[in-house]
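Write out the bound-state structure for magnesium ion.
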Amino acid sequence: MSKKNPEYDFKWCPGCGDFGVRRAIEFAMIGRLEETGQPMANNVVVAGIGCSGNLVHLLEGEQPYGIHGIHGRSLPIALGVKMAKPTLNVVVVAGDGDFLSIGGEHIGPQAARNLNICAVIMDNGVYGLTKGQSSPTTLQGKITSSTPFGKLETKTNPLELYLTLGVSFIASGFSGQPRPLSKLIQQGMDHPGFSIVHVQSPCTTYNDTFIELKGDLANGIQPALWDIPEEHDPSDRTAAHDLLQQGGVPVGVLYNDSSRVSLDEAVVGTWDKAQPKTVEQLLGAFEF
Ligand SMILES: Cc1ncc(C[n+]2csc(CCOP(=O)(O)OP(=O)(O)O)c2C)c(N)n1
Ligand code: SF4
Ligand SMILES: [Mg+2]
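---
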């Protein structure tokens, strides 16, 4: 139970990858505070529904603001928060099911708007909270509680999807490396537009992929994780696409286009053009 939120009783299983993601977000927020001098209250965490979304109640130390929203709708809520107060640092935390399944249709529109928020996605390849059903990132053929004869659909490649939809900052990380992950998250927060940090965060109860990700060379298992080489130019979209063809799980910044105008900048830019109307004009608009 979180001391900060005694009315809640959310728990994660021992070894759950989300512990590492939580730590990385805490490090990133402290880093941002030191870098910008902005207080912790300048951060708002918008959480989806899932074990991953429970992160908002389990953060330790000085607390940011938090909204635990509805399943699949973290992006529309984040849009509302950011538009109401563009100076806030808005961070979405959601799972692979929440973000890519029920919430999948929101990614494209926010990418097109370049909504200036950072989404940290905890991918465990399963619906953890509801006890292990398959998600878009579950491997094809995998037997789960909802796919007793093996999953029929192919696995979604989230990084390919984000690149195709035009997300302007895309990074990929691992929950087992909280310090390097925090740097990716901080870069995502600093990015002036829509950033997604997609994190492999294994579910130790329903889909434990730690060994697959880290490898076990003594037993002949090569790691799926590999570092994006330093010479990779993240502003090169074709290079980012080519990197993804190597398979496995790249770690680092895949793509970064800081040249685009963000939604909040664009909206503020319309304020000069908009002609404010008087109450009489507004009421008069309904006369026939
Ligand atoms: C509209 C709606 N549909 C379904 C659910 C049930 N539900 C809660 S969490 C969840 C899936 C969570 O999976 P994921 O987003 O991957 O999070 P994880 O628990 O794995 O971190 C589902 C289907 C819900 N709460 N609301
Ligand atoms: S069910 Fe899986 S994702 Fe949920 S807390 Fe347990 S280990 Fe973590
Ligand atoms: Mg999940």
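---
The CA atoms of residues 19 and 241 lie 30 Å apart.
Residues 18-284 form a domain with the Rossmann fold fold (CATH 3.40.50.970).
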